[in-house]
Amino acid sequence: MSNATATLATSRTEMTELLLPNETNNLGRALGGTVLHWMDLCAAVAAMRFSGRQCVTASMDHTDFLSPIDLGEVVELDAYVFRTGRTSLDCRVSVHAEDPKGGETNRRKTTTSFFTFVALDDEGHPTGVPELVCETETEEALRERAIEEQREQLATVVARLEDD
């Protein structure tokens, strides 16, 4: 697929979830594993839409939970491919939550993380992915934002490790 291209917009994936009792801890807040599961699914769909292939998770960057998600809140996830390698795709996933009775005025960011996927051929072996093309200024801005956020997140993690 070395000559193939795909756009950032092709990968754009949005999911909406409602936090239910089985997905909460004893405080009535989202289990971290549930949020990570939703993030992995959203990013996987973005990677598959972009590559036209089955994709598997290779890695997930550090994730900080910035704000709790309470029972009954609506959770919105947004993912897109922002960088590609020969067989790999990097996806940015952001998560926001809101009380559905309060509307968008109480919408807040809960976390953002970055996932790497590997595209597989029909035999389950790594295979080439299209080159990322940003056709609009908006797409280019999203790509640059993801690269900068990932760089900042990595710097924060390294600083924390150095402090330990």
TrEMBL record:
Any one cellular-component term (Gene Ontology): cytosol
GO molecular function: long-chain fatty acyl-CoA hydrolase activity
BP terms from Gene Ontology: acyl-CoA metabolic process; fatty acid catabolic process
Ranges of residues in domain HotDog ACOT-type: 9-123
Top-level taxon in the UniProt lineage: Archaea
CDD domains (alphabetical): BFIT_BACH
Keyword Ribosomal protein: no
Pfam families xrefs: 4HBT
InterPro entries: Cytosol_ACT, HOTDOG_ACOT, HotDog_dom_sf, Thioestr_dom
Keywords: Hydrolase
Coiled-coil ranges per UniProt: none
Protein name: Acyl-CoA thioesterase
Organism the protein comes from: Salinirubellus salinus
